[in-house]
Amino acid sequence: MDSSRQPLLKVENLTKRYLIKKGFFSKNYFTAVNNVSFELNTGQVLGLVGESGSGKSTIGKLILNLIKPDEGRILYNGIDITNNLSKDLRREISIIFQDPRTSLNPRFKIYDILEEPLIVHNIPKNERKDIVVKTIKSVELDETFLDRYPHELSGGQRQRVAIARAIILNPKLIIADEPTSALDVTVQLQIVNLLERLKNEKNISFIFISHDLNVVGKLSDYIVVLYKGKIMEKGVKSDIIENPLHPYTKILFESLPPHHPKYKKTIISIMEQDDESFDGCEFYNRCPIKKDECKTKPNYKNINGREVYCHFV
Question: pTM of the full predicted structure?
Answer without folding.
Answer: 0.89
